[in-house]
Specification:
210 residues; six-stranded parallel beta sheet; 6 strands; alpha/beta; Rossmann fold
Length: 210
């Protein structure tokens, strides 16, 4: 729904969220002892914020991220110096097969973005593993993460630090259930079919009688 904001004049029919096959990720019922960051190394993704959060709470942060050529200078100048902290472990880019364990064994996923994220697939990947998400209130984040259920939506560093302290009380099974209810592929298919049917019915009703 957030993507509608710059285009209020468009003829919006409905919002259908991305979905993943329910069996593509498995539930990890027990949390690990590290915070996770998964994505790209770029200014808008907020990996520097993730590092500050980890430093504030004194918890290990594992960063699984790629560095695109356009962001190499940013990585070398702004991020690489922060990797000397013993709390920070830079893994680099990982494949689809490694995601399940990386996300599932994390205590929480940090998603401290600084741009209007259209969706953020990694959030529902974490939820599918049962791992709660701590995300900054940007773009579609508030539509994906429900505070107190699948994680916490925060507005600043202090709130993110406070969220880490309480995110461990959330049910990882409930995080998984939130994914299954709202973001699995079968739900996406049902929603698309409902939109198609409603559109067809509306067009039929709008046609003049013969």
């Amino acid at each position: 729904n957030d993507q509608r904001t710059p285009l209020p004049f468009a003829n919006w029919r409905a919002t259908v969220y991305h979905g993943l096959p329910a069996d593509s990720y498995r539930l990890h019922p027990e949390p690990g002892k590290y915070l996770a960051f998964l994505g790209r190394i770029s200014p808008e993704k907020g990996v520097d914020r993730a590092i500050r959060i980890a430093q504030r709470v004194g918890m290990e942060l594992r960063i699984a991220a790629k560095v695109d050529k356009v962001d190499e200078a940013y990585f070398k100048e702004c991020i690489r110096p922060l990797l000397s902290d013993p709390l920070v472990k830079f893994i680099g880019e990982i494949g689809e097969k490694e995601k399940n364990d990386f996300l599932g064994r994390a205590y929480a996923l940090l998603f401290p973005i600084d741009w209007p994220e259209p969706f953020g697939l990694v959030m529902i990947e974490a939820m599918a593993c049962g791992t709660p998400v701590i995300a900054y209130r940007r773009g579609s984040v508030s539509e994906i993460v429900r505070s107190g259920e699948s994680g916490y939506v925060v507005d600043n560093l202090d709130q993110a630090v406070a969220a880490v302290a309480k995110v461990g009380t959330l049910s990882r099974r409930r995080c998984r259930q939130a994914f299954e209810a709202r973001f699995c592929a079968s739900r996406m298919v049902r929603d698309y079919l409902a939109v198609y049917r409603a559109t067809i019915d509306a067009d039929v009703q709008a046609q003049p009688a013969a």
